[in-house]
């Protein structure tokens, strides 16, 4: 059995928007290579938690620690489906490599171009690589967002309801790829989802947010009863 190496630790984390507590005293340790689902009904605070983990929001209490140091954690983030203007001029290939350019050179090195091509292939986008991304279908756009996040070689990937608008085949294709990288390259994944069967199929652990508090455990402990109870309590 391999030993567990923490990559992310939430300590007594709490978030309150003015007059509106979202979560409180949340403690969680995520280890390298783990695949977590983050579940809970609409409005319970899943995206707020992800934005706090990304340091986009400052928690009201507690803290988010990247381990062993902030520099050791490279985060990839794939948001919920967002449409892209049909006139947007970048090709799918340029879009996938967009975040690789910038800080050293304004163009991609040969190695970076090869990484983009490999990622286009892995996400099944090679044949469409020259198509303007604005003209791609919803599923193709979402694959391009995933490819853009993965090409940066993150060691922590956050999928924030990224598969919600996709058909079952495309969902499976994307999550199969994420699972493959999770298993071969020890990628740690946080998968925010309302799709409990999908969570059971791909993830190993769950964090469930409810208005009363949080619960975490092995995915086989996420029973239907627990999910229904969590949702019913809020009605
Ligand atoms: N910047 C903000 N200021 C005030 N309230 C906010 C802000 N962002 C989110 N909220 C509120 O905090 C609560 C949690 O929102 P959040 O988007 O995190 O929920 P969620 O669990 O991701 O929901 P969903 O499943 O519908 O995407 C909601 O009531 C939302 O209206």
Automatic annotation (TrEMBL):
All copies of domain ABC transporter, residue ranges: 8-235
Repressor among keywords: no
InterPro entries assigned: AAA+_ATPase, ABC_transporter-like_ATP-bd, Metal_Ion_Import_ABC, P-loop_NTPase
Protein name: ABC transporter ATP-binding protein
GO terms for MF: ATP binding
Encoding gene (name): znuC
PANTHER family associated with the record: METAL TRANSPORT SYSTEM ATP-BINDING PROTEIN TM_0124-RELATED
Any Pfam family: ABC_tran
Family, similarity comment: Belongs to the ABC transporter superfamily.
Gene3D superfamilies: P-loop containing nucleotide triphosphate hydrolases
Swiss-Prot/TrEMBL keywords: ATP-binding, Nucleotide-binding, Transport
Organism: Levilactobacillus zymae
SUPFAM superfamilies: P-loop containing nucleoside triphosphate hydrolases (SSF52540)
């Amino acid at each position: 059995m391999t030993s567990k190496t923490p990559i992310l630790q939430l300590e007594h984390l709490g978030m309150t928007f003015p007059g509106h507590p979202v979560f409180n005293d949340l403690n969680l340790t995520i280890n390298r290579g783990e695949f977590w689902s983050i579940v809970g009904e609409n409005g319970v605070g899943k995206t707020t938690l992800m934005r706090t983990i990304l340091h986009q929001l400052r928690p009201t209490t507690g803290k988010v620690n990247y381990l062993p140091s902030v520099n050791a954690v490279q985060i990839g983030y794939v948001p919920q489906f967002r449409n892209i203007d049909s006139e947007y001029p970048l090709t799918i290939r340029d879009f996938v490599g967009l975040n690789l350019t910038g800080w050293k050179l304004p163009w991609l090195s040969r190695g970076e171009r090869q990484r983009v091509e490999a990622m286009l292939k892995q996400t099944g986008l090679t044949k469409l690589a020259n198509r303007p991304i604005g003209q791609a279908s919803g599923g193709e756009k979402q694959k391009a967002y995933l490819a853009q996040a993965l090409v940066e070689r993150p060691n922590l990937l956050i999928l924030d309801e990224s598969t919600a608008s996709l058909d079952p085949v495309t969902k499976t294709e994307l999550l199969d790829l994420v699972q493959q990288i999770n298993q071969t390259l020890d990628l740690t994944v946080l998968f925010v989802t309302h799709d409990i069967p999908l969570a059971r199929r791909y993830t190993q652990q769950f964090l469930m947010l409810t208005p009363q508090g949080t619960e975490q455990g092995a995915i086989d402990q996420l029973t239907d009863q627990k999910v229904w109870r969590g949702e019913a309590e809020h009605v």
